[in-house]
Amino acid sequence: ARIEKDGHKHFMAKEIAEQPTAIDRALANYLAQDNSIVLPEALDFSQIERLTLVACGTGYYSCLVAKYWFEQIARMPVEVDVASEFRYREPPISADTLAVFVSQSGETADTLAALRYTEGKAKQIAGLVNVPESSIARESDIVLPIKAGPEISVASTKAFTCQLTVLLLMALKAAEVRGHALPENVLEDMRALPGLVHQAIAAENSIQAMARDLAGARDVIFLGRGALYPIALEGALKLKELSYIHAEGYASGELKHGPIALIDETVPVVVMAPRDALFEKTVSNMQEVMARGGKVILVTDAEGAKMAGDGVHATIVLPALPDVLAPILYAVPAQQIAYYTAIAKGTDVDQPRNLAKSVTVE
Ligand code: G6P
């Protein structure tokens, strides 16, 4: 059947809007009624000591978030790499490694080549894909479909949040199998994600207004800490892909090691910061930006908005949620900022120049 836009102006808007349903489908596929996590039986985390996560583009940022989860919750060491670097570096792969290849299409040439490099070296190869009949799925020992449904827009949206959902369930399963406590109520809280993502999508009015401002910028900086750092990277990637505005993502703590030199009144700084244990450090980063005339756009929750105080140029308020789930929710404004800035600039949202949905050549 032909996939239509269902009344949306672009596939990207449709796919952003589909995220609550897509995440729900991913959860239903791996989380049983009794809240037990059901992964393919062949995947036995008691036999695995380390993970190597490999992907390209947006999938790479899923892997970077997953590193925080696997390390913090399951206490397993994780290496993450972009596929095009991974195989040429010829990294040693120990026999107790689970190699995970994350790919929406399952056809990205570099990711497939990286997978082949790990054959006969890693203990197991898992493919986390949206297209279950893809090459990466076929060549993996274990296939983990992310259940996002067909994604048409070149910029990946619902595949990203579904990748994150499945990777978090994997990390939680690994923790359980290895005898580490799960964050309190995390599985119940995960069931609330579709509803929270729905609420986040509804915050689009404040983003639309702010995007008209961003459309005039030449450079934009995105900041985030911890597992929100990869979301800052994703926000910057999306903005440059869709609106052709130069954007860079940085770990908030790295601000003073470089990007602060760029700050003046023409460089907006988007700060992805739920009110978590490190929020006060982020507030001081924002003050450094504002002291140099920089315009801070803060994406946070109600409490964070209150604590941030005066001087913030614009605030996008999301529902509060447990820290572990924040990267999934904060992906939504990262997508919408890029979407509405592209609309304000009049660029081709679904088919950005020079980009392809799936890169099947090296
Ligand atoms: C291209 C697409 C991106 C995607 C990347 C990896 O660059 O434009 O949206 O994240 O490929 O694709 P994959 O299908 O392997 O996830």
From TrEMBL:
Active site (UniProt): K357 (for fru-6p isomerization activity)
GO cellular component: cytosol
Catalysed conversion reaction: D-fructose 6-phosphate + L-glutamine = D-glucosamine 6-phosphate + L-glutamate
Enzyme Commission designation: 2.6.1.16
Alphabetized GO MF terms: carbohydrate derivative binding; glutamine-fructose-6-phosphate transaminase (isomerizing) activity
Keywords: Aminotransferase, Cytoplasm, Glutamine amidotransferase, Repeat, Transferase
One BP term from GO: fructose 6-phosphate metabolic process
Enzyme class: transferase
Domain SIS per the UniProt entry, residue ranges: 41-180, 210-352
Localization (cell): Cytoplasm
Assembly behavior: Homodimer.
Free-text function comment from the UniProt entry: Catalyzes the first step in hexosamine metabolism, converting fructose-6P into glucosamine-6P using glutamine as a nitrogen source.
Name under which the protein is recorded: Glutamine--fructose-6-phosphate aminotransferase [isomerizing]
The species this protein was found in: Tritonibacter litoralis
Part of the whole protein covered: 241 to 602 of 602
